[in-house]
Write a structure and sequence with these properties.
alpha/beta, 3-stranded parallel β-sheet, about 260 residues, 5-stranded mixed β-sheet, D-Maltodextrin-Binding Protein, domain 2, 2 domains
């Protein structure tokens, strides 16, 4: 082995050692460990009202925030609400910046390869929303149109799967940016939840409508893989608060309708 090769090998090993050293420490695996720590960090969206938003003091609020607070009350520990975005919420969890995600994260097979999901605690209907004047009845009618979605969202995945060749899918950092693109005429349509569609209608009147359903999605609490005790505790929390009506009360508070029937797993 010549000198240059030896130096390159030593450098590579040193880099690997630094990488291992820099990796975050393992986060709490059980509720008892979280109680011993005295708090839990829960990631949630703040750009997806009414599920995730901010109050007048710019603090996290919404249905997900209330669910996270209810969980903390149920477990008797302090809850630190950590704002995340659609694209970074799973990376925040996997790098131990948060212990759990209560972040309107839809359950999908792809995501289930990265994180462990609880039983669903929430639901949303994702639609293709556009001006009434556009004759859109199915995915085939999207050819040649510009459609906005929030990047890495369920609507992004659902639309990408069915959009015909010639559809221009424009991906934005969040729903608010995608909505603004529609209202300003930068795009012809948007893939979004019915709650976002309601916001558009509130701002722009009755010139828009739901064209067709992209997906009925169920949202679950997400945690890192291989945390069976934590999963059991979260599932028990969800089941208990569905049965006693607490989750329905919170859902009605924010969405003015009853919590849809949710699958048990």
């Amino acid at each position: 082995m010549n000198l240059l090769t030896r130096r390159a090998l030593v450098g590579a090993l040193a880099g690997a050692a630094l990488l291992v050293t820099a990796m975050p420490h393992a986060a709490a695996q059980t509720v008892d460990e979280l109680k011993k720590k005295g708090s839990i960090n829960i990631g949630l969206l703040v750009d997806f009202p009414p599920y995730g938003t901010v109050d007048a003091s710019n603090n996290p609020d919404g249905y997900d925030a209330d669910v996270a607070r209810l969980l903390g009350k149920d477990w008797g520990i302090k809850v630190n609400l950590v704002p995340v975005t659609g694209p970074n919420r799973i990376p925040f969890l996997l790098t131990n910046k948060v212990d759990l995600l209560v972040a309107s994260l839809a359950v999908t097979p792809e995501r289930a390869k990265q994180v462990q999901f609880s039983r669903p605690y929430s639901a949303a209907t994702i639609v293709l929303y556009a001006p009434k004047k556009l004759g859109i009845k199915s995915a085939a009618d999207l050819k040649g149109l510009r459609v906005a979605v929030a990047r890495a969202s369920t609507q992004d995945t659902a639309l990408t799967a069915i959009a015909p060749a010639g559809t221009e899918i424009r991906r934005f950092d969040d729903d608010a940016s995608a909505m603004q693109a529609l209202l300003s005429g930068q795009v012809d349509a948007i893939g979004c939840s019915t709650t976002v569609a309601a916001q558009i209608a509130k701002r722009a009147g009755d010139g828009y409508e739901n064209k067709f359903i992209l997906k009925q999605q169920f949202m679950a609490v997400a945690m890192r893989q291989n945390q069976p005790e934590l999963l059991k505790a979260v599932n028990e929390f969800v089941a208990r608060n569905i049965a006693n009506g607490e989750l329905n009360t919170l859902y009605r508070k924010w969405l003015q309708t009853d919590l849809p029937a949710l699958p048990a797993d």
